Amino acid sequence: MKVKLLILALLLALLSLVAAEAAGQKVYVASVKGIIDPFVARYVRQAVDKASREGATCLVIELDTPGGTDTAMRDIVQTIMNSEVPVVVYVSPRGARAASAGLFIAMAAHVTAMAPGTNIGAAHPVGIGEVLTGTLETKVTQDAAAYIRAIAQERGRNAEWAEQAVLESASLTAQEALEKKVIDLIASDFEELLRLLHGRGVRIQGKEITLATVGIPVERVKMSWTDDLLHSLVNPDVAYILLSLGILALMAEFYNPGTFIPGITGIICLILAFVALGSLPVNWGGIALIILAIILFLLDIKVTGFALSVGGAIAFVLGSLLLFSPWPSVSPAMPAVRVSWWLVALMTASFLAFFLFAATAVWRAQRRKALTGLDAVIGARGWATSDLNPMGTVLVKSEEWTAEAIEPPILKGEPIEVVGREGVRLKVKKTKER
After folding, report:
1. 228 assigned to some structural domain
2. Are 114 and 97 a contacting pair, CB within 8 Å?
3. Number of CB atoms found within 10 A of residue 114's CB
4. Of 217, 235, 246, 432, whose CB has the highest number of CB atoms within 10 Å?
5. What's the CA gap between 78 and 74, in Å, rounded?
C-alpha cells in the first residue's frame, strides 16, 4: 500500500512538472555578484525581459554586492519596479551582503529574502556618523535618502530604517532585517526559498498574483561572455594593474622604439583600464600624480643621478593610494573602494626596477662616451643585431648600440657602417664589407 501511494505521489509530481513545462512556467535565476556596473544593469534588464517574455512564474536575483554606480543602480531599480513578472531578490550565499547600491535593489524587489549570516544596509560611502560637507554632497545624499524612502513605501517596507541606512550607514543582519520589516523571508538555501515563496501573493501592475514555485523547472540566465569579461574588470585591483601595465608597456616602447608589441599591449591595457575606471569612483588627482611620476621617471633617464626616480616613486605611491578616493563624495550607492597596499608596493617596485634599469643603461652609455669618445665610433663598421626599420640595435667595437638606419631596411646580420650619431644613438648605413 505504501509503495502504491509513493508511486502515485511521484506520478502526480511528474504530471505537475509536465503541466508546468507545457504552460511555460519556470523560475528564472540571475546571479549578481560584485560591483553594480552598467554590465550588471544590462544583464538584469535582459533577465527580466526574458522572464516576462516567456511567462515565468518569477525571477530570482541572487545578490552579493558591496555597491556600485548610481546610474546602474537606478537602471536596475526601474527595471524591477516596472517588471511584469515578480522579481525576488535573495541575498546569498551565507556571508554575502547587499550594501550601498545593493540595498536599493533589494528594497525594490517584490519579495526580498536573505540567507542566514548575510547583512544589508551601509548605504553611505564616508562612514557611520561622519559629517557631510559641501552643498553637492548634501544634495546627493538627500536625494538618495528620498529615493530609497519612496522605494520602501511603494513596497510596504520600513522606510524610516531605509533612510537611516543612507544617512547614517545603518546595517542589519538577516534576522534583524526580518524583525524590522526590511525583508520578507529568511531562507537557508535556494530550495527552502522556493518552498517559502510557494503560495505567496504579490502585486504586479495593480494585480494580485499568487506564486507557484514548487515542482516547476528552474532555469539560470547567464550573463553574456562579453559583459562577464567587462564586469570582471570592474575591480579596483584589476583596473590598477591594467593601468600600471599599460603605462609600463608604453614606456618600454618609448625606450626601445620599433618593436611595436609593447606599444600595442600598452594601448590595449589602457583601454581596458579606462573601461574599468569608468565604473569606479576615480580621483583624477590620483591619476595626475601617476602621470607626474611617469614624467619624472622619463626625465631621470636623460639626467645623471636618481633623484627624479625617487620623486617619481613617491608621486606614484601617493597617486595609487588616492586613485579611488574621490572628492567630493560620490553617490551613497557607490561603495568605498581602494587598491590593495601590497599591489601598490609591487607596482612601485616594478616601475622603479624598469626605470632604474633604463637609467643605468643610459649612464653606462654616457660613461662609455667619456672613456673612449663617442665620436670615435663614427666610420667604424659592425653588423646589425636586429632588423633596423629604421630603429634597432647594432654591434660596433664589441659593444651593442641603439641605431637608426638612414636607408632602411637593414636586416639582422647585415654589415653596417656608422655615419653619424644623435646623442647616444648611432646613425648607420648598410655596407658590403665588415
Report:
1. no
2. no
3. 31
4. 246
5. 6
Alpha helices in 26-125 (DSSP H): 38-53, 70-81, 101-108
* Distance separating alpha carbons of residues 109 and 61, to the nearest angstrom: 9
Q: Report yes or no on 229 lying in a domain.
A: no
Which pLDDT band holds residue 185 (cuts at 50, 70, 90)? very high
97, 55: one domain = yes
**Alpha carbons 105 and 151: distance in angstroms, whole number:** 9
pLDDT one-digit tens code per residue, 56-74: 999 999 999 988 888 899 9
Residues 384, 288 within the same domain: no
CB 63 within 8 A of CB 89: yes
Same domain, 212 and 285: no
Contact between residue 121 and residue 162 where contact means Cβ atoms under 8 Å apart: no
The residues pairing with 91 across neighbouring beta strands, listed in sequence order, are: 63, 114
264-289: per-residue pLDDT in tens? 888 898 888 888 887 777 787 888 88
Give me the catalytic one of 26, 83, 92, 100: 100
Beta-bridge partners for 396: 382, 399
Q: Which domain holds residue 35?
A: 2-223
Same domain, 39 and 130: yes
| Residue type for position 151 | I
The CATH code of the domain that includes 399 is 2.40.50.140
- Percentage of the chain exceeding pLDDT 90: 35
Catalytic residue among 139, 222, 397, 412: 139
In a domain, 230, yes or no: no
Q: Phi then psi for 54, rounded to 5 degrees?
A: -100, 10
Is 100 known to be catalytic? yes
Domain count, the chain: 3
pLDDT value of residue 223: 93
Q: Are residues 85 and 171 in the same domain?
A: yes
**Active-site residue, 31 included:** no
Q: What is the mean pLDDT of residues 156-160?
A: 93
